[in-house]
């Protein structure tokens, strides 16, 4: 049994929410391997145009950054994550893009973003929104940093098939579609769409499972 497989559910949940050290790196690499196909589809669905400024919230180890930048000419990418371990790893894996000024990685939270108003054409996250204890604050910040008409796209766990450890005491806050729609609208988003999507995944033990997730789109 490997180190990851030996993690207690609460420890696995903690590393998903805020990866730390070598174990955190291993956990997020496993998540990337499990979700890479669906993540590529999400990035393609952003519909980025040449010259777009894009923010990813919770970029993990940054392995999806080249995929984002490769969607169109002259994409400028910024990533925001609460984990110093992930910031360092993403900068390491994307050193050439950082040196070229095409990618930047920041330490911070969705509730308090270090960006001016109307900085981005698109803001997205994959598997992050279910960690927000104050989603109204995070969504309000997302709308603030988006340019008028800009796209917000969030993907998060569905309560129906969420892992047993995805509970508030472990830092997970699951909400239904109606609540997510209400939260988006309450901070001024328009054209809000919350879709239920079924995706195949590999769980912590390496077994194939079916999960449902929410795909949430809205415009500033």
Automatic annotation (TrEMBL):
Any single biological process term in GO: methylation
Instruction: Give any GO molecular function from the UniProt entry.
Output: S-adenosylmethionine-dependent methyltransferase activity
Keywords on record: Methyltransferase, Transferase, Ubiquinone
The keyword S-adenosyl-L-methionine is annotated on this UniProt entry: no
Domain annotation Methyltransferase type: ranges: 55-151
- Organism domain of life: Bacteria
Question: Any keyword Magnesium?
Answer: no
Q: Which CDD domains match?
A: AdoMet_MTases
The name under which this protein is listed is Ubiquinone/menaquinone biosynthesis C-methylase UbiE
Source species, please?
A: Granulicella mallensis
